[in-house]
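Write out this protein's structure.
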Amino acid sequence: MKLKFKGSIDFLLLGIIVLSIFLNFYQLQDAGTNTYYTAAVKSMLKNFHAFFYASFDPAGFITVDKPPVALWIQTLSASIFGLSDFSVLLPEALAGVISVWLMYIIVKPKFGRGAALLSSLILSCTPIFVAVVRTNNVDSILIVTLLTATWALMKSVEKQKIGWLILSFVLVGVGFNIKMLQAYMVLPAFYLFYFIAVKTNWKKRIAQLAIATVLLAAVSFSWATIVDSISKDKRPYIGSSQTNSVLELALGYNGISRLTGNQGGNGSGKAPQGTPPANNQGTSNKGQSGSGNDGTQQGPPSMNGSNMPNQSGNGGPPSFGGQGDGKQGGSSGMFGTGTPGVARLFSKELSGQTSWLLPFTLFAVVGVFASFWKKREFTMQHKFTAFWLAWLLPMMVFFSIAKFFHQYYLSMMGPAIAALTGIGWMALWGLYKEKQGWQSWLLPASVFATSLFEALVLYENSSAIAAGWIAVPIVLGLSLSALLVIMRQREKAAYYLSLAGVLALLIFPFYWTLSTILEGGNSATPIAGPNAHGMGGGPMGGNGPMMGAGPNQSQQGGSATGAGANQKDGRMGSQVNQQLLTYLEKHYNGETFILATESTQEATSIMLNTNYTVMAMGGFSGSDPALTPAKLEKMVKAGKVKYFLISGQGRGNQEVNAWIQKNCKEVPSSEWQSSQQTDNQQPFGMKQSQKLYVYQG
């Protein structure tokens, strides 16, 4: 039995698209952004040099830690609509909606409208997918690019044209220039599907795949090759690399190091990027800016073991335990992702993000291949299922053993889980209505088993929900499964019961998604669910409406005066220290950089609230070797920078800090700090002493 449909407009698909638009765009202007990337977008609007390299600052001192394609798109949006939270988030939210539509387009030709609708619906309300879509992290643009590549791959098999295959692999190469090796996680599925599905001899298949692979590599490494071939003194330092190389960034920090957790760079003992520095810019988009309910600034998170980020919902920062010894990347509980192992995706830390339907997908795959075993015919439907399984399994293995990733990376699993659930429901229904053998019982068993797992997820997160809700999926699953057994002879009623069964499995994932957009989460390192508020497992703020987005508007907490103050009401990251800014403006003499800081964390608030340029000497984490004492001495003597804000607490490049302390004069705190400031109210939210130095020549 199939869902009946008449007319040229699929109103059910339209309804799903509308739902996706609501989930992705609801109060999007207030969702907050990842200030690290937003500051880069603002810089990229200033000149082509910063635009091409994805430079964090308009002067082109250091880049962000990602290639530029997604940021180019965000910059284009900002150039059209003006720089604001909404304009920066718009491409990501649109990408999420388009991805939901693409699921329908991709699944329908192989498994029909019912499976396609279900797949689209599931992706639209996958918790971590929606959570990341509502941020300016680049993952949703990567996902829509890979789904477009998937559509082209399916066309290449359908049309038997190598041009579609080349387009598919070229798009994966574009994905590489969005988030580097993460894009390659889908390649096993692409190679497998084309090899088993295209109708030609195996030698020609290999030759065609070889051609596509060459073009994949050419597109993937085009930007990296251009940048690395340019003299290092004529381009920005490559942020988060240790050798000022895009290739090293791709294969190291954004590649193998994600698996090994070795993020300490050259073993210097410096904290890896992503390790929260002492500065905690806020962790929720409700404006706590890293403070607890009492309004006091929380101390810097530490990293250790399996401790989860603060789940109390009080806006406090994540707590990890441990110290910055250069080994944190291997900590099993880093960023609250749980302990590596086979059960990791089903653990408290990760299960609520995207794992809700994994038990159903297991039954679905068994059902699809059981039909192959019965008929001994490897149809296109089986090959299509194999594609999504080859998409999902490598990711499951990676996220089960990797030692350095954030929860929102799991959004990459969303399309495969959605597709396997949609096509799996159709396959299990087909076996069920045949009423033959053990395979016919897979449908009621899958509904009940998945319901039990969802109850486990709720139990693991019982601190965030009423205890009574834990029984709901069990009761629903048991009831619907029992009815499927009882109503087996009444096919029409059983069909709608089976549909109700799989839709019932979406109730709590949808609740997890809805609570994320209503309660708010971390806009820099998003986590889905009722526990997401105040969480994020990462250092960067990026909360609340953006400052510095519109002309001639006042700044919350005071107005920035002088050249280039360009603000509007709201917050992004930590609020600017007005006393510091006033002091710097008073003594500003046209230097390239009004201030130099240890990391981007301290720089973003000034960058986003004014048109001044700040030099983040050590990149995002403060540990990038972008400067040497000799290079810094040359810059200060050339009049490019004269003020330095450093903590003196073992952060940043210690050789550079030592040069600053030796050759510069400390500015009395009374000149740039309010006399009412306490140690808990240090500039940029740092609970430790900062010192301002000036180079006087």
